[in-house]
């Protein structure tokens, strides 16, 4: 049995609360079960120096875990003087994922910075961050259209992310921490609502897994992401 008696193809309870930041151009608090992430989108009317004069914008992301987001307190990375490799890898993943579904020319010469702060972690923090980041980005872009700063919303497709894995020989959707820690294989899928692949990270933790198992993980992810995209659209309505 899975925790909370979930079916193998069932997401954790998901909620997306928008407008949680008074000042950010886009924001949401997204909950994947006990994983909670605060996401904000900030519009900067400048682009990185290396992009100036190219007639298009940029989307980038920062990610971090709050000191008591896990069972024991971790020092802030700022206090340690540098970001860890995991943090850098995840925030690059978030940025890449968002840039795959935005028309940077339509955005104009401005930058949108996404901040993902993990308030509580129970597995799947990167996938929750990406899913919430799309919501915050969409809000910020809609605001630019409303203000007449751009002609059309540059977001080109709904997109979300979810984890899958093989635990006790069974393929499962949306792993929480106890499952992830015991997984023989785990994967993170970033897909569009229609199943287009943006990025897939899949790793065997114990022994190689089969192409048939990979196909099943992909099927679970596609169905889960279709559900998540519906939740995103409902949150923005």
Automatic annotation (TrEMBL):
Q: Start and end of every Exoribonuclease phosphorolytic domain?
A: 10-140, 158-223
A Pfam family name for this chain?
A: RNase_PH
Q: What class of enzyme is it?
A: transferase
PROSITE patterns in alphabetical order: RIBONUCLEASE_PH
Q: Which InterPro entries match?
A: ExoRNase_PH_dom1, ExoRNase_PH_dom2, ExoRNase_PH_dom2_sf, PNPase/RNase_PH_dom_sf, Ribosomal_Su5_D2-typ_SF, RNase_PH, RNase_PH_bac-type, RNase_PH_CS
Q: Where does phosphate bind?
A: 86, 124-126
Query: In its keyword annotation, does this UniProt entry include Transport?
Result: no
Q: What EC identifiers does the entry list?
A: 2.7.7.56
Determine if Acetylation is one of this entry's keywords: no
Reactions mediated catalytically: tRNA(n+1) + phosphate = tRNA(n) + a ribonucleoside 5'-diphosphate
Q: Which UniProt keywords apply?
A: Nucleotidyltransferase, RNA-binding, rRNA processing, Transferase, tRNA processing, tRNA-binding
Q: What does this protein do?
A: Phosphorolytic 3'-5' exoribonuclease that plays an important role in tRNA 3'-end maturation. Removes nucleotide residues following the 3'-CCA terminus of tRNAs; can also add nucleotides to the ends of RNA molecules by using nucleoside diphosphates as substrates, but this may not be physiologically important. Probably plays a role in initiation of 16S rRNA degradation (leading to ribosome degradation) during starvation.
Give the record's family classification.
Answer: Belongs to the RNase PH family.
PANTHER family given for it?
EXOSOME COMPLEX COMPONENT, EXOSOME COMPLEX COMPONENT RRP41
Its quaternary organisation is:
Homohexameric ring arranged as a trimer of dimers.
> Would you tell me the protein name for this molecule?
Ribonuclease PH
